[in-house]
Amino acid sequence: MFYLRYGGASRRIVGQIIRTNTRSLSGRSNTIRTRAGSRYEESSRPLPFTTCTTRFYSARMVATDELTARLSALSLAPSALAAHPAVSNPGQWKEALGLAPGVPSSFELCKTLVFKPKTAKSATPVPVVVIARDETETSSGALAKKFNLKDLRLATDDLLKDFFALDKDSLSPLALTKDNFSRCQVVLDSTIAGTSAPLALHASSPEATVFLSGKDIATYLTSLETAEAKVHVVDFAALKAEAEATPGGVGPVGKAAPAKKAEDAKIEGAVQIAIGVKKELDFPTWYTNVLIKAEMIDYYSVSGCYILKPWSFTIWERIQQWFDSKIKELDVENSYFPMFVSSKVLEREKDHIEGFAPEVAWVTRA
After folding, report:
1. What share of the chain is helix, strand, coil (3-state, %, to 5)?
2. What residue ranges define each of the domains in the chain, with the CATH number in brackets?
3. What region holds the YbaK/aminoacyl-tRNA synthetase-associated domain (predicted)?
């Protein structure tokens, strides 16, 4: 027996399956039970969908009519759609798609990163939206240098909601619309623009994926361009090579040893390993990547601050204990210094820490 939920002003069935029976899917029973408001209605109409097509929308699919209309207006159509459990990182995403029906046999993940450049407090930020293959190394430092921006940091959840009404696990190029495109700086991986291979994009949800070719993604993005706002196509491999050839953008040209050392530190097939460099050749980068990739720390919107995640706190305690013993051997006492942050940041913490009262930490100018 199918339980389908009605939705929308047109009262049409949207295919949200609450409970299903394989006998009904096979066509042995065409009786469905639907709910309109608080009551259930019996119907013997033929089932409005089938499972033998890649365009099947299941319970968790959030491919809205508005999104579909935007693609259709450009004569674009997804090669496949998939529903799966909620995912929060590329590993989970790829694993979930591997178990989902109707997924292309060969595909790549497409990541969408949003960075916020450092701006004056009174200025409205212009987010930098980076769209790239999951395996592409997108250095925020190199991007900042190329576009003459300062201190690119991953955008906060608040900024993502303000601009796109989505969280980081639901973002994709399709989050860009005529309304917000001109308010952003959009950067597209050059290896995407010319490929016809299917790329997996979040369909405005961590539980739904839509597959589009790289060419279709480029077509969609360029359709949003205005006279003032354009898509910036970037060759990230060339950008990285340029950054390594001139570390920091200054210094003598002949000093190429650090770039050579960084090149030697690369691991063959690092797309699977994810750390990217060898520990013995570039320890600082290796250690930083381990902490971030293992989700032990996270960046914070306040410059110089990091968020220690639960599974890293014991390590931090050990580090403190070691330094504490060494420092006290020198007859040095511990001391604490205040750190000043904005009232907006303090207000946000009351939602994170039970019992936190932001007003006790406020400092006013005399």
Report:
1. 35, 20, 45
2. 2-43 (no CATH), 65-237 (3.90.960.10), 246-294 (no CATH), 295-366 (no CATH)
3. 105-218
For the stretch 101-138, pLDDT in tens is 989 989 999 999 999 998 877 788 899 999 999 999 99
The encoded tokens of residue 202 equal 């979040």
Q: What are phi and psi of 365, to 5 degrees?
A: -80, 135
Cα dihedral 198/200/201/205 (nearest 10): 140
Contact indicator for 111, 134 with CB cutoff of 8 Å: yes
- Centre a 10 Å sphere on the Cβ of residue 275 and count the other Cβ atoms it contains: 16
> Coil, strand or helix: which one is 231?
strand
pLDDT tens digits, residue range 255-278? Answer: 445 656 666 666 555 544 567 778
Radius of gyration for the alpha carbons in the chain, expressed in angstroms and rounded: 25
pTM as predicted? 0.54
Reduced to 3 states (helix: H, G, I; strand: E, B; else coil), residue 2 is: strand
Query: From CA 316, how far away is CA 325, in angstroms rounded?
Result: 14
The answer to whether the CB of 197 falls within 8 A of the CB of 107 is yes
192: tokens are 């995407």
Place of tokens 């459990």: 85
